[in-house]
């Protein structure tokens, strides 16, 4: 197991604390997959408890006594026949990452990232966040007795996430700026050795998140779906999940790979613009804006990895408007009983838009990943609803109201 630069190929020991290669390239964790292939079988995996650590051989941990876990992963893959019927699809699934311990997929990354911090003996961890990363890191640092520092874009974090970060005991700092600026600041602190950085530029975090790909195949009886659709912000998750699918294929646990489709919000779509121009990198956007605050990001650090995942998988990237996001959020809640936050609903909104455009095979096995729980952002849901009026305690009035 080593850290390797995906630009120049330079290798670093896994115990070296480094976030980018000397050449500026992004790092990736590489394994001896031939060895893993001989070590684990589908049957052995199946005998283990579900969750991130079911896939231990594929994870960068040396000392299992150092694992920090809240039993993350093992999230449901719902077959959504009501929504499939409405959209004219043969097979549609929702992988609901909102069912993780702190309510988002970030927990998969943090169990591995904070375990790594434990192995390295780092007493302080930190991140910049649009909300969910901070909630998750705060929880895992509390569990491992570490100090946690989080930088948030002031006034732009959903209430539930802010409440979580504060309540788990993190030192929360709001800046008068956006996520991209917060990330530059926290990274500077990390480079001055003030903390161990757990944003998705840290390749160890992405190793935990790749288990979403593993788990989808596992839940589909070791078959890959034809298409995976998910929201894209800082672009770590799409890169991580693609890595997961590729590693399962290279170790013969699946025999095909899905198309990876990334969805961004109209007001924050650097990756979509790069994809549409068939470029390998983005032009950062200075003033990202969307109701889906989790993906309100103009300069995603993992953009080149994400674009590679999209091109390699023969996938695509598309944007959706805030109105489309809210409509999809409601539709999912009201047809399948799954309440997700706005960023997560962008994957459903993207599916609907791409179906209208004729860009999706209706006969395929489609998985939409919903990345965060709807309770994270009650304001968004309340704003999109008509609040009930109060009535007198009178049975006749009540009967009239429920018939309306
Ligand atoms: C709910 C939710 N969905 C999607 C994303 C985007 O993930 P990524 O930054 O890995 O692209 C985030 C990131 O914060 C998120 O919180």
From TrEMBL:
<comment type="similarity">
    <text>Belongs to the threonine synthase family.</text>
</comment>
<keyword id="KW-0456">Lyase</keyword>
<dbReference type="GO" id="GO:0006567">
    <property type="term" value="P:L-threonine catabolic process"/>
</dbReference>
<protein>
    <recommendedName>
        <fullName>Threonine synthase</fullName>
        <ecNumber>4.2.3.1</ecNumber>
    </recommendedName>
</protein>
<feature type="domain" description="Tryptophan synthase beta chain-like PALP">
    <location>
        <begin position="68"/>
        <end position="372"/>
    </location>
</feature>
<dbReference type="GO" id="GO:0009097">
    <property type="term" value="P:isoleucine biosynthetic process"/>
</dbReference>
<dbReference type="InterPro" id="IPR026260">
    <property type="entry name" value="Thr_Synthase_bac/arc"/>
</dbReference>
<keyword id="KW-0791">Threonine biosynthesis</keyword>
<feature type="modified residue" description="N6-(pyridoxal phosphate)lysine">
    <location>
        <position position="106"/>
    </location>
</feature>
<comment type="pathway">
    <text>Amino-acid biosynthesis; L-threonine biosynthesis; L-threonine from L-aspartate: step 5/5.</text>
</comment>
<dbReference type="GO" id="GO:0009088">
    <property type="term" value="P:threonine biosynthetic process"/>
</dbReference>
<keyword id="KW-0663">Pyridoxal phosphate</keyword>
<dbReference type="GO" id="GO:0030170">
    <property type="term" value="F:pyridoxal phosphate binding"/>
</dbReference>
<keyword id="KW-0028">Amino-acid biosynthesis</keyword>
<dbReference type="GO" id="GO:0003941">
    <property type="term" value="F:L-serine ammonia-lyase activity"/>
</dbReference>
<dbReference type="InterPro" id="IPR000634">
    <property type="entry name" value="Ser/Thr_deHydtase_PyrdxlP-BS"/>
</dbReference>
<dbReference type="GO" id="GO:0004795">
    <property type="term" value="F:threonine synthase activity"/>
</dbReference>
<feature type="binding site">
    <location>
        <position position="371"/>
    </location>
    <ligand>
        <name>pyridoxal 5'-phosphate</name>
    </ligand>
</feature>
<dbReference type="GO" id="GO:0004794">
    <property type="term" value="F:threonine deaminase activity"/>
</dbReference>
<dbReference type="InterPro" id="IPR036052">
    <property type="entry name" value="TrpB-like_PALP_sf"/>
</dbReference>
<feature type="binding site">
    <location>
        <position position="132"/>
    </location>
    <ligand>
        <name>pyridoxal 5'-phosphate</name>
    </ligand>
</feature>
<feature type="binding site">
    <location>
        <begin position="233"/>
        <end position="237"/>
    </location>
    <ligand>
        <name>pyridoxal 5'-phosphate</name>
    </ligand>
</feature>
<dbReference type="Pfam" id="PF00291">
    <property type="entry name" value="PALP"/>
</dbReference>
<dbReference type="InterPro" id="IPR004450">
    <property type="entry name" value="Thr_synthase-like"/>
</dbReference>
<dbReference type="InterPro" id="IPR001926">
    <property type="entry name" value="TrpB-like_PALP"/>
</dbReference>
<dbReference type="InterPro" id="IPR050147">
    <property type="entry name" value="Ser/Thr_Dehydratase"/>
</dbReference>
<dbReference type="GO" id="GO:0006565">
    <property type="term" value="P:L-serine catabolic process"/>
</dbReference>
<comment type="function">
    <text>Catalyzes the gamma-elimination of phosphate from L-phosphohomoserine and the beta-addition of water to produce L-threonine.</text>
</comment>
């Amino acid at each position: 197991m080593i850290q390797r630069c995906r630009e120049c190929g330079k290798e670093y020991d896994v115990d070296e604390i480094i976030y980018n290669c000397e050449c500026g390239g992004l790092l990736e964790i590489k394994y001896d997959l031939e060895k893993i292939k001989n070590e684990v079988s589908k049957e052995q995996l199946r005998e283990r408890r579900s969750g991130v650590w079911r896939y231990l051989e594929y994870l960068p941990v040396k000392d299992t006594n150092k694992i920090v876990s809240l039993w993350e992963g093992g999230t449901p893959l719902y077959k959504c026949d009501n929504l499939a019927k409405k959209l004219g699809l043969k097979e549609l699934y929702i992988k609901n990452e909102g069912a993780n311990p702190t309510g988002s997929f970030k927990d998969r990354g943090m169990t591995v990232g904070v375990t790594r911090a434990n192995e390295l003996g780092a007493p302080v961890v930190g991140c910049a966040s649009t909300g969910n990363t901070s909630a998750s890191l705060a929880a895992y640092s509390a569990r491992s007795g570490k100090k946690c520092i989080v930088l948030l874009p002031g006034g732009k974090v959903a209430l539930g996430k802010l409440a979580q970060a504060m309540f788990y005991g993190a030192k929360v700092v709001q800046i008068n700026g956006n996520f991209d600026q917060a990330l530059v600041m926290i990274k500077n602190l990390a480079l001055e050795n003030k903390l161990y950085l757990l944003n998705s530029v840290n390749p160890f975090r992405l190793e935990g998140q790749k288990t979403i790909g593993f788990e989808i195949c596992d839940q589909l009886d070791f078959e890959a779906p034809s298409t995976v659709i998910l929201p894209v912000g800082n672009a770590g998750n799409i890169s991580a999940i693609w890595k997961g699918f590729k590693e399962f294929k290279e170790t013969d646990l699946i025999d095909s790979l899905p198309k990876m489709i990334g969805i961004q919000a109209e007001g924050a779509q650097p990756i979509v613009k790069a994809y549409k121009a068939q470029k390998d990198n983005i032009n950062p956007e200075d003033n990202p804006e969307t109701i889906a605050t989790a993906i309100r990001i103009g300069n995603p650090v993992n953009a080149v990895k994400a674009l590679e995942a999209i091109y390699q998988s023969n996938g695509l990237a598309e944007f959706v408007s805030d109105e489309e996001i809210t409509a999809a959020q409601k539709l999912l809640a009201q047809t399948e009983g799954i309440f997700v936050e706005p960023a997560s609903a962008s994957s459903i909104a993207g599916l609907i838009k791409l179906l209208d455009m004729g860009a999706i095979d209706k006969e395929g096995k489609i998985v939409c990943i919903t990345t965060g729980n709807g309770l994270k952002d009650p304001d968004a849901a309340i704003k999109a609803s008509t609040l009930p009026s109060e009535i007198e305690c009178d049975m006749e009035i009540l009967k009239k109201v429920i018939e309306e």
